[in-house]
Amino acid sequence: MAEFSQKRGKHRDEDPLSSAVDFLLANARLVLGVGGAAVLGIATLAVKRLIDRATSPPDTEDGKAEQKCIEESWQELSLLKASPRRPKPRRDDLSQPRPPSAQAPRAPEPDLSGEPAAVPGSRGPSPPPPLCLTLQERLLAYYQSHVVVSEADVALATRLAGDIAQELQSYLRGRFPELPFGDLAPSSPLHDGLEAVAADRTCLLVPLVLEPGLWTFIPGEDTIANDPHYWVIRRTELEYFPRGSSPWDRFLVGGYLSSSTLLEVLRKALVGSVNWPAIGSMMDCLIRPGVASDELLLDVQHEQLELSIALFPAAAGEARSLLARPREGLLENLWQQDFYQAEASKLRELDGADSGARRVCLQLLRGVCKHHPSLKRLGVSHLAQVILHLSEAETAWAQDALAERFQQAIAELVGYLEEGALPCYFNRHVNLFSGLQEWEIDDMGFALYRAVTAPELLLA
Q1: Is 172 helix (H, G, I), strand (E, B) or coil?
Q2: Given this model, what pLDDT does residue 121 score?
Q3: Which of 38, 164, 210, 331 is most enclosed, with most CB atoms within 10 A?
Protein backbone atom coordinates (compact mmCIF):
# COMPACT_ATOMS: atom_id res chain seq x y z
CA MET A 1 0.00 0.00 0.00
CA ALA A 2 2.88 2.36 0.73
CA GLU A 3 4.36 1.68 -2.69
CA PHE A 4 0.95 2.34 -4.27
CA SER A 5 0.73 5.69 -2.51
CA GLN A 6 4.24 6.57 -3.64
CA LYS A 7 3.44 5.68 -7.25
CA ARG A 8 0.22 7.76 -7.15
CA GLY A 9 2.13 10.67 -5.75
CA LYS A 10 4.82 10.26 -8.39
CA HIS A 11 2.33 10.11 -11.25
CA ARG A 12 0.48 13.07 -9.81
CA ASP A 13 3.59 15.18 -9.69
CA GLU A 14 4.86 14.13 -13.14
CA ASP A 15 1.65 13.99 -15.17
CA PRO A 16 -0.20 17.35 -15.56
CA LEU A 17 -3.23 15.46 -16.84
CA SER A 18 -3.49 13.61 -13.55
CA SER A 19 -3.31 16.91 -11.67
CA ALA A 20 -6.18 18.28 -13.72
CA VAL A 21 -8.23 15.16 -13.13
CA ASP A 22 -7.63 15.32 -9.40
CA PHE A 23 -8.73 18.95 -9.32
CA LEU A 24 -11.86 18.06 -11.28
CA LEU A 25 -12.68 15.23 -8.89
CA ALA A 26 -12.14 17.48 -5.85
CA ASN A 27 -14.71 19.98 -7.10
CA ALA A 28 -17.12 17.63 -8.86
CA ARG A 29 -19.14 16.99 -5.72
CA LEU A 30 -19.91 20.66 -5.34
CA VAL A 31 -21.03 20.98 -8.95
CA LEU A 32 -22.64 17.61 -9.78
CA GLY A 33 -23.76 16.37 -6.38
CA VAL A 34 -22.89 13.09 -4.67
CA GLY A 35 -24.30 10.75 -7.36
CA GLY A 36 -22.81 12.64 -10.28
CA ALA A 37 -19.44 12.86 -8.57
CA ALA A 38 -19.39 9.09 -8.02
CA VAL A 39 -20.14 8.31 -11.69
CA LEU A 40 -17.55 10.82 -12.89
CA GLY A 41 -15.00 9.47 -10.41
CA ILE A 42 -15.41 5.86 -11.65
CA ALA A 43 -15.12 6.89 -15.28
CA THR A 44 -12.10 9.05 -14.58
CA LEU A 45 -10.49 6.32 -12.52
CA ALA A 46 -10.85 3.87 -15.39
CA VAL A 47 -9.21 6.32 -17.80
CA LYS A 48 -6.37 6.92 -15.36
CA ARG A 49 -5.78 3.22 -14.98
CA LEU A 50 -5.50 2.82 -18.76
CA ILE A 51 -2.99 5.65 -18.87
CA ASP A 52 -1.03 4.17 -15.96
CA ARG A 53 -0.93 0.74 -17.60
CA ALA A 54 0.35 2.22 -20.83
CA THR A 55 3.11 4.21 -19.11
CA SER A 56 4.18 1.78 -16.37
CA PRO A 57 5.39 -1.87 -16.24
CA PRO A 58 2.86 -4.52 -15.33
CA ASP A 59 2.37 -5.03 -11.60
CA THR A 60 0.24 -7.85 -10.32
CA GLU A 61 -0.45 -6.32 -6.93
CA ASP A 62 -1.32 -2.95 -8.45
CA GLY A 63 -3.75 -4.60 -10.85
CA LYS A 64 -5.52 -6.41 -8.04
CA ALA A 65 -5.77 -3.20 -5.99
CA GLU A 66 -7.13 -1.29 -8.93
CA GLN A 67 -9.72 -3.98 -9.62
CA LYS A 68 -10.81 -3.89 -5.98
CA CYS A 69 -11.16 -0.06 -6.01
CA ILE A 70 -13.29 -0.24 -9.15
CA GLU A 71 -15.57 -2.89 -7.63
CA GLU A 72 -16.01 -0.80 -4.44
CA SER A 73 -16.82 2.29 -6.48
CA TRP A 74 -19.50 0.44 -8.43
CA GLN A 75 -20.99 -0.84 -5.19
CA GLU A 76 -21.21 2.73 -3.82
CA LEU A 77 -22.85 3.87 -7.05
CA SER A 78 -25.47 1.08 -6.81
CA LEU A 79 -26.26 2.11 -3.23
CA LEU A 80 -26.76 5.75 -4.30
CA LYS A 81 -29.11 4.65 -7.09
CA ALA A 82 -31.08 2.41 -4.74
CA SER A 83 -31.75 5.20 -2.21
CA PRO A 84 -35.05 6.99 -2.76
CA ARG A 85 -34.64 10.37 -4.33
CA ARG A 86 -37.21 13.20 -4.08
CA PRO A 87 -38.39 14.16 -7.56
CA LYS A 88 -37.90 17.72 -8.61
CA PRO A 89 -41.14 19.67 -8.80
CA ARG A 90 -42.21 20.68 -12.25
CA ARG A 91 -42.69 24.35 -13.10
CA ASP A 92 -46.46 23.81 -13.25
CA ASP A 93 -46.47 22.33 -9.77
CA LEU A 94 -44.80 25.39 -8.22
CA SER A 95 -47.97 27.45 -8.58
CA GLN A 96 -50.12 24.84 -6.83
CA PRO A 97 -50.71 25.36 -3.06
CA ARG A 98 -49.07 22.88 -0.77
CA PRO A 99 -51.30 20.87 1.61
CA PRO A 100 -51.29 22.12 5.20
CA SER A 101 -49.56 19.02 6.49
CA ALA A 102 -46.67 19.46 4.06
CA GLN A 103 -46.11 23.13 4.72
CA ALA A 104 -43.08 23.85 6.85
CA PRO A 105 -43.59 26.24 9.75
CA ARG A 106 -42.54 29.74 8.83
CA ALA A 107 -40.04 31.48 11.02
CA PRO A 108 -41.40 34.61 12.67
CA GLU A 109 -40.38 37.77 10.91
CA PRO A 110 -38.05 39.98 12.92
CA ASP A 111 -39.52 43.09 14.52
CA LEU A 112 -37.56 46.07 13.27
CA SER A 113 -39.55 48.67 15.20
CA GLY A 114 -37.55 48.24 18.39
CA GLU A 115 -40.70 47.74 20.48
CA PRO A 116 -41.11 44.67 22.70
CA ALA A 117 -43.28 41.95 21.21
CA ALA A 118 -46.71 41.51 22.77
CA VAL A 119 -47.23 38.31 24.76
CA PRO A 120 -50.15 36.25 23.40
CA GLY A 121 -53.20 36.61 25.59
CA SER A 122 -51.91 39.74 27.32
CA ARG A 123 -53.24 43.25 26.97
CA GLY A 124 -50.40 45.01 25.29
CA PRO A 125 -50.37 48.49 23.78
CA SER A 126 -52.67 48.95 20.85
CA PRO A 127 -50.95 48.85 17.46
CA PRO A 128 -50.06 52.25 16.02
CA PRO A 129 -52.40 53.66 13.40
CA PRO A 130 -51.45 53.36 9.74
CA LEU A 131 -49.07 55.98 8.45
CA CYS A 132 -51.31 56.98 5.55
CA LEU A 133 -54.07 58.60 7.64
CA THR A 134 -55.47 61.92 6.54
CA LEU A 135 -55.46 64.92 8.88
CA GLN A 136 -59.18 64.41 9.48
CA GLU A 137 -58.59 60.80 10.56
CA ARG A 138 -55.61 61.80 12.70
CA LEU A 139 -57.68 64.44 14.50
CA LEU A 140 -60.52 62.04 15.22
CA ALA A 141 -58.08 59.39 16.48
CA TYR A 142 -56.30 61.97 18.65
CA TYR A 143 -59.64 63.18 19.98
CA GLN A 144 -60.61 59.68 21.10
CA SER A 145 -57.22 58.70 22.54
CA HIS A 146 -55.92 61.97 24.07
CA VAL A 147 -58.77 64.44 24.49
CA VAL A 148 -61.99 62.74 25.55
CA VAL A 149 -62.49 62.49 29.31
CA SER A 150 -64.34 59.46 30.62
CA GLU A 151 -67.89 60.01 31.79
CA ALA A 152 -67.06 58.42 35.12
CA ASP A 153 -64.31 60.97 35.83
CA VAL A 154 -66.53 63.88 34.78
CA ALA A 155 -69.36 62.64 36.98
CA LEU A 156 -67.06 62.12 39.96
CA ALA A 157 -65.38 65.53 39.60
CA THR A 158 -68.75 67.23 39.22
CA ARG A 159 -70.11 65.51 42.32
CA LEU A 160 -67.07 66.42 44.41
CA ALA A 161 -67.24 70.06 43.30
CA GLY A 162 -70.96 70.20 44.07
CA ASP A 163 -70.54 68.71 47.55
CA ILE A 164 -67.68 71.07 48.38
CA ALA A 165 -69.74 74.02 47.11
CA GLN A 166 -72.57 73.14 49.50
CA GLU A 167 -70.17 72.84 52.44
CA LEU A 168 -68.53 76.16 51.57
CA GLN A 169 -71.83 77.91 51.20
CA SER A 170 -72.95 76.72 54.64
CA TYR A 171 -69.63 77.78 56.11
CA LEU A 172 -69.66 81.28 54.59
CA ARG A 173 -73.19 81.97 55.76
CA GLY A 174 -72.31 80.80 59.24
CA ARG A 175 -68.92 82.54 59.39
CA PHE A 176 -70.07 85.83 57.78
CA PRO A 177 -73.80 86.09 58.47
CA GLU A 178 -73.76 89.81 57.76
CA LEU A 179 -72.40 89.35 54.21
CA PRO A 180 -75.08 88.43 51.65
CA PHE A 181 -73.35 85.75 49.60
CA GLY A 182 -75.33 84.09 46.84
CA ASP A 183 -75.40 80.42 45.95
CA LEU A 184 -72.05 79.12 44.83
CA ALA A 185 -72.18 78.19 41.14
CA PRO A 186 -69.75 76.18 38.99
CA SER A 187 -68.28 77.88 35.95
CA SER A 188 -65.80 75.80 33.96
CA PRO A 189 -65.51 73.54 30.90
CA LEU A 190 -65.99 70.57 33.21
CA HIS A 191 -69.67 71.49 33.67
CA ASP A 192 -70.26 72.50 30.04
CA GLY A 193 -69.00 69.38 28.24
CA LEU A 194 -65.85 71.14 27.05
CA GLU A 195 -63.29 69.48 29.30
CA ALA A 196 -60.25 67.95 27.61
CA VAL A 197 -57.55 65.46 28.58
CA ALA A 198 -58.51 65.16 32.26
CA ALA A 199 -61.16 66.28 34.74
CA ASP A 200 -58.56 68.03 36.88
CA ARG A 201 -59.80 71.62 37.33
CA THR A 202 -63.00 73.53 37.92
CA CYS A 203 -64.10 76.93 39.22
CA LEU A 204 -66.69 77.97 41.77
CA LEU A 205 -68.10 81.49 41.70
CA VAL A 206 -68.93 83.08 45.05
CA PRO A 207 -71.58 85.69 44.14
CA LEU A 208 -71.76 88.97 46.03
CA VAL A 209 -75.28 90.36 46.41
CA LEU A 210 -74.76 94.12 46.07
CA GLU A 211 -77.47 96.58 46.94
CA PRO A 212 -78.90 98.22 43.83
CA GLY A 213 -78.34 101.95 43.72
CA LEU A 214 -75.32 101.89 46.05
CA TRP A 215 -72.75 100.56 43.59
CA THR A 216 -71.70 101.65 40.12
CA PHE A 217 -69.60 99.69 37.57
CA ILE A 218 -66.98 101.86 35.85
CA PRO A 219 -64.98 100.49 32.86
CA GLY A 220 -61.22 100.30 33.20
CA GLU A 221 -60.46 102.66 30.33
CA ASP A 222 -62.06 105.46 32.40
CA THR A 223 -59.68 104.82 35.28
CA ILE A 224 -55.97 105.26 35.85
CA ALA A 225 -55.39 101.62 34.81
CA ASN A 226 -56.72 102.37 31.27
CA ASP A 227 -57.48 98.70 30.65
CA PRO A 228 -60.95 97.84 29.31
CA HIS A 229 -60.60 94.26 30.54
CA TYR A 230 -60.88 95.46 34.16
CA TRP A 231 -63.56 97.39 36.00
CA VAL A 232 -63.93 99.22 39.29
CA ILE A 233 -66.96 99.11 41.56
CA ARG A 234 -67.57 102.49 43.14
CA ARG A 235 -69.64 103.16 46.23
CA THR A 236 -72.33 105.80 45.52
CA GLU A 237 -75.05 107.68 47.39
CA LEU A 238 -72.80 108.26 50.37
CA GLU A 239 -74.66 111.44 51.27
CA TYR A 240 -77.90 109.49 51.71
CA PHE A 241 -76.46 106.12 52.70
CA PRO A 242 -73.26 106.84 54.62
CA ARG A 243 -70.40 104.43 54.93
CA GLY A 244 -71.45 101.43 56.96
CA SER A 245 -74.92 101.25 55.47
CA SER A 246 -73.82 98.36 53.29
CA PRO A 247 -72.19 95.23 54.71
CA TRP A 248 -69.69 95.41 51.87
CA ASP A 249 -68.38 98.77 53.03
CA ARG A 250 -65.79 96.97 55.14
CA PHE A 251 -63.95 96.16 51.91
CA LEU A 252 -63.82 99.74 50.59
CA VAL A 253 -60.48 101.23 49.57
CA GLY A 254 -60.65 104.86 48.49
CA GLY A 255 -64.38 104.66 47.85
CA TYR A 256 -64.12 101.51 45.70
CA LEU A 257 -64.89 97.88 46.49
CA SER A 258 -61.47 96.26 46.73
CA SER A 259 -61.12 92.82 45.21
CA SER A 260 -57.75 92.17 46.89
CA THR A 261 -59.10 92.97 50.38
CA LEU A 262 -62.02 90.60 49.91
CA LEU A 263 -59.70 87.86 48.65
CA GLU A 264 -57.44 88.24 51.66
CA VAL A 265 -60.31 87.92 54.15
CA LEU A 266 -61.65 84.81 52.41
CA ARG A 267 -58.17 83.27 52.20
CA LYS A 268 -57.60 83.57 55.94
CA ALA A 269 -60.99 82.03 56.65
CA LEU A 270 -60.55 79.10 54.25
CA VAL A 271 -57.03 78.29 55.42
CA GLY A 272 -57.46 78.74 59.16
CA SER A 273 -61.12 78.20 60.01
CA VAL A 274 -62.53 75.42 57.84
CA ASN A 275 -62.22 71.84 59.10
CA TRP A 276 -61.16 70.36 55.78
CA PRO A 277 -60.09 66.94 57.17
CA ALA A 278 -63.61 66.36 58.50
CA ILE A 279 -65.23 67.50 55.25
CA GLY A 280 -62.87 65.33 53.21
CA SER A 281 -63.55 62.24 55.32
CA MET A 282 -67.27 62.56 54.60
CA MET A 283 -66.51 62.67 50.86
CA ASP A 284 -63.88 59.90 50.91
CA CYS A 285 -61.17 62.30 49.74
CA LEU A 286 -58.43 64.56 51.02
CA ILE A 287 -58.93 68.35 50.77
CA ARG A 288 -56.15 70.87 51.27
CA PRO A 289 -56.28 74.65 50.73
CA GLY A 290 -53.62 75.93 48.36
CA VAL A 291 -51.39 77.95 50.64
CA ALA A 292 -48.69 78.71 48.07
CA SER A 293 -51.12 79.77 45.32
CA ASP A 294 -52.20 83.37 44.72
CA GLU A 295 -55.69 82.10 43.90
CA LEU A 296 -58.22 80.77 46.37
CA LEU A 297 -57.47 77.17 45.55
CA LEU A 298 -58.54 73.83 46.99
CA ASP A 299 -56.61 70.68 46.11
CA VAL A 300 -58.79 67.56 46.21
CA GLN A 301 -57.21 64.10 46.14
CA HIS A 302 -59.51 61.19 45.48
CA GLU A 303 -58.48 57.60 44.86
CA GLN A 304 -59.64 57.94 41.26
CA LEU A 305 -58.56 61.50 40.36
CA GLU A 306 -57.03 64.75 41.54
CA LEU A 307 -59.03 67.95 41.25
CA SER A 308 -58.19 71.64 41.73
CA ILE A 309 -61.07 73.95 42.62
CA ALA A 310 -60.52 77.70 42.20
CA LEU A 311 -62.82 80.10 44.07
CA PHE A 312 -63.59 83.53 42.62
CA PRO A 313 -65.77 86.15 44.31
CA ALA A 314 -68.06 87.48 41.58
CA ALA A 315 -70.02 90.68 41.25
CA ALA A 316 -72.73 90.58 38.61
CA GLY A 317 -74.53 93.53 37.18
CA GLU A 318 -75.53 95.21 33.94
CA ALA A 319 -75.26 91.94 31.94
CA ARG A 320 -71.63 91.34 32.91
CA SER A 321 -69.74 89.25 35.39
CA LEU A 322 -66.72 90.65 37.24
CA LEU A 323 -64.34 88.36 39.09
CA ALA A 324 -61.91 89.10 41.92
CA ARG A 325 -58.61 87.75 40.64
CA PRO A 326 -55.26 88.30 42.35
CA ARG A 327 -53.42 91.11 40.59
CA GLU A 328 -50.59 93.49 41.45
CA GLY A 329 -49.86 97.14 40.80
CA LEU A 330 -52.61 99.32 39.37
CA LEU A 331 -54.90 96.31 38.92
CA GLU A 332 -54.72 95.26 42.57
CA ASN A 333 -58.20 96.47 43.56
CA LEU A 334 -59.87 96.06 40.17
CA TRP A 335 -62.31 93.39 38.98
CA GLN A 336 -61.66 91.43 35.80
CA GLN A 337 -64.52 90.94 33.39
CA ASP A 338 -65.18 87.26 32.74
CA PHE A 339 -66.33 86.15 29.28
CA TYR A 340 -66.41 82.40 29.77
CA GLN A 341 -70.16 82.02 30.23
CA ALA A 342 -70.79 84.18 27.15
CA GLU A 343 -68.25 82.16 25.13
CA ALA A 344 -69.71 78.78 26.11
CA SER A 345 -73.25 79.97 25.44
CA LYS A 346 -72.35 81.39 22.02
CA LEU A 347 -70.53 78.23 20.91
CA ARG A 348 -73.47 76.10 22.02
CA GLU A 349 -75.82 78.35 20.09
CA LEU A 350 -73.77 78.25 16.88
CA ASP A 351 -73.29 74.49 16.97
CA GLY A 352 -76.96 73.96 17.68
CA ALA A 353 -77.94 76.03 14.64
CA ASP A 354 -75.84 74.14 12.06
CA SER A 355 -74.83 70.93 13.89
CA GLY A 356 -71.26 72.19 13.74
CA ALA A 357 -68.04 70.93 15.29
CA ARG A 358 -66.84 74.16 16.92
CA ARG A 359 -66.89 72.69 20.40
CA VAL A 360 -65.02 69.59 19.21
CA CYS A 361 -62.43 71.84 17.59
CA LEU A 362 -62.11 73.75 20.87
CA GLN A 363 -61.51 70.52 22.76
CA LEU A 364 -58.86 69.46 20.24
CA LEU A 365 -57.06 72.77 20.64
CA ARG A 366 -57.24 72.49 24.42
CA GLY A 367 -55.87 68.95 24.29
CA VAL A 368 -52.95 70.04 22.10
CA CYS A 369 -52.16 72.98 24.39
CA LYS A 370 -52.34 70.89 27.55
CA HIS A 371 -49.87 68.36 26.16
CA HIS A 372 -47.41 70.99 24.88
CA PRO A 373 -45.25 72.67 27.55
CA SER A 374 -45.04 75.99 25.67
CA LEU A 375 -48.79 76.22 24.96
CA LYS A 376 -50.16 75.59 28.44
CA ARG A 377 -50.55 79.35 28.95
CA LEU A 378 -53.32 79.41 26.36
CA GLY A 379 -56.53 79.01 28.31
CA VAL A 380 -59.99 77.99 27.22
CA SER A 381 -61.01 81.63 26.80
CA HIS A 382 -58.18 82.36 24.34
CA LEU A 383 -59.01 79.35 22.20
CA ALA A 384 -62.77 79.91 22.31
CA GLN A 385 -62.29 83.49 21.15
CA VAL A 386 -60.20 82.31 18.18
CA ILE A 387 -62.97 79.93 17.12
CA LEU A 388 -65.63 82.62 17.52
CA HIS A 389 -63.64 85.00 15.32
CA LEU A 390 -63.14 82.25 12.74
CA SER A 391 -66.88 81.51 12.76
CA GLU A 392 -67.53 84.99 11.44
CA ALA A 393 -65.50 84.27 8.29
CA GLU A 394 -66.27 80.55 7.89
CA THR A 395 -69.82 79.27 8.06
CA ALA A 396 -69.22 75.59 7.18
CA TRP A 397 -68.46 73.82 10.45
CA ALA A 398 -69.72 70.32 9.70
CA GLN A 399 -67.87 67.29 11.02
CA ASP A 400 -66.19 66.58 7.67
CA ALA A 401 -64.68 70.10 7.66
CA LEU A 402 -63.03 69.66 11.06
CA ALA A 403 -59.49 69.24 9.67
CA GLU A 404 -59.70 72.38 7.56
CA ARG A 405 -61.14 74.46 10.41
CA PHE A 406 -58.54 73.13 12.85
CA GLN A 407 -55.73 74.16 10.51
CA GLN A 408 -57.33 77.56 9.99
CA ALA A 409 -57.65 78.05 13.74
CA ILE A 410 -53.93 77.37 14.15
CA ALA A 411 -53.13 79.90 11.43
CA GLU A 412 -55.43 82.50 13.03
CA LEU A 413 -53.85 81.94 16.43
CA VAL A 414 -50.35 82.38 15.00
CA GLY A 415 -51.49 85.64 13.41
CA TYR A 416 -52.79 86.96 16.74
CA LEU A 417 -49.55 85.96 18.45
CA GLU A 418 -47.53 87.79 15.80
CA GLU A 419 -49.57 90.92 16.47
CA GLY A 420 -49.34 90.41 20.23
CA ALA A 421 -53.06 91.04 20.61
CA LEU A 422 -56.21 88.92 20.65
CA PRO A 423 -59.31 91.16 20.50
CA CYS A 424 -62.30 89.94 22.47
CA TYR A 425 -65.26 88.76 20.43
CA PHE A 426 -67.68 90.65 22.70
CA ASN A 427 -65.57 93.78 23.19
CA ARG A 428 -63.00 94.63 20.52
CA HIS A 429 -61.21 97.00 22.87
CA VAL A 430 -60.21 94.18 25.20
CA ASN A 431 -56.90 92.48 24.44
CA LEU A 432 -56.99 88.99 25.90
CA PHE A 433 -53.19 88.72 25.58
CA SER A 434 -52.63 91.69 27.88
CA GLY A 435 -51.85 89.40 30.82
CA LEU A 436 -49.03 87.60 28.99
CA GLN A 437 -45.39 88.60 28.86
CA GLU A 438 -43.72 89.28 25.51
CA TRP A 439 -41.41 86.30 25.82
CA GLU A 440 -44.39 84.04 26.53
CA ILE A 441 -46.12 85.22 23.35
CA ASP A 442 -42.95 84.66 21.33
CA ASP A 443 -42.49 81.20 22.82
CA MET A 444 -46.02 80.17 21.87
CA GLY A 445 -45.63 81.66 18.39
CA PHE A 446 -42.48 79.65 17.74
CA ALA A 447 -44.20 76.47 18.93
CA LEU A 448 -47.15 76.97 16.57
CA TYR A 449 -45.38 78.41 13.52
CA ARG A 450 -44.43 75.05 11.96
CA ALA A 451 -47.88 73.65 12.72
CA VAL A 452 -49.48 76.06 10.25
CA THR A 453 -48.29 73.94 7.32
CA ALA A 454 -47.89 70.68 9.25
CA PRO A 455 -50.58 70.55 11.96
CA GLU A 456 -49.97 66.84 12.52
CA LEU A 457 -46.81 67.84 14.40
CA LEU A 458 -49.04 68.90 17.29
CA LEU A 459 -50.63 65.45 17.44
CA ALA A 460 -47.41 63.54 18.12
Answers
A1: helix
A2: 42
A3: 164
